[in-house]
Amino acid sequence: MTTAGTARHLQARPELLVGAGEVEAEYAKDTWDAQRLGVPSRRGRTLARFGVITQPWLREAIKRWSRYRLGAGYSFTTIDSGAQSLARFSQFLARHPDVDSFNGITRELLEGFLVWITAQPRWSTNTRHHTITFVKVLLDWGHRHGTLTGLPANAVIYEEEVSRPPDQLPRFIPEFVMNQLESEANLARLRNPTVRHLVVLLMETGLRGGDACVLPFNPIVEDSVGWPCLRFDNSKVAVEQLIPLSAKAAATIRAQQAHVLQRWPAGSPWLFPGIELNRDGTKPYAHASLSHQLGAWQKAIDLRDEASLPVRVHAHQFRHTVGTRLINAGVPQHVIQKLPSDLRRVRLLRDRGRVPAHPARPTRPRPPTPPAPARRALHPPPRPARQRGDRVNHDRPGPFAHAVLDHAVESLANLHGVLCVDDPGERLKRLSHLDRQLHTELTVTALDCRHHGYTRQEITHLLDHPPRP
May I ask the CATH class of domain 175-351? Predict the structure, then answer.
């Protein structure tokens, strides 16, 4: 939300900081409409409400800060979330009527706020975390730009005071429950084709619901080998991404395209147009209605767990389930996070039935044992390992001893030049660079000379004790 990692993906919109006429009149209101401001937003998330902040001086400051964040590239949904979180800070200030400006926001008051919000049982840990974070960022903005007049210098919330949500296990859906959700008979009970196709696509791809609802009408592209891939905008990091599709996911998209053309012969810009109040098909499916549709469907199919107890799953759990299945299929976690084209093979194997739905880690087939002469050629008998204190023959044929000597001489010359630099900061910078360069070159040389028959002990000894000329 406010980390440097998030800020790297923001796309600045400086034009939003300058407005006139109707735009300025909209900014002056306590409820902002994204369409009137010309700010992109998702259907059902077009309003930012500041009226919940009761102190006028605080409300106006938060509106200025929110406009600044809009210009920095933050989404309109984040602006509304900030207003709702800071409304809790407003509730705390209502208990201190003597605070009528930022002059009263002292460190002592903030410490009382931290104690007060921690003691509120009605709010979850995530809610408290977001509230403290937004207050911290607002105060940091005021200190950095001098925009909160009268704010004391000690009015800060330190990083270690921001309560962190506890680490939780992945909320994947058990296979017993997924078998019920993926049943063709149960999917047929989703009467609306748009909702049914959307649910299947979420199950197959693990997309976020908000990203899936705003997919363009034709999001499929083929890679260099003709495999269908899904192109979409990842709203969380504000980048366009490409992921491979399973055969079922690709067929589902094609079926949804046919349904859209049948319902709206003139076409629609969206793969999943809205169901209600969308006569011309220009509005996308509202993400907020997905939770209601999914809950009603689970009640209709009487979804239960292995203990025969009713269970409720959420759309975002499909994302965790896809990741869990890929891990069970042997795909490394760092690969799953990036979702590269390597997933094509995993999903292809699963589509062909060669990977179980919930397998253990796969075992590679053992290659046939070669005959004895071939084994000796491939795996020569190891030489006896040298013991500590044994002499190493530097005259042994091979390039490694000379390479170590050349690097040592060159590094000494470079080191003499670095030590002649007067500026301490620049000298330290060059020393660090020289150290990294020497380490990299020697590592590459060591790996290369392993092919010349040098043992690990010989390489280590030569790195520690370069030969003399």
Answer: mainly alpha
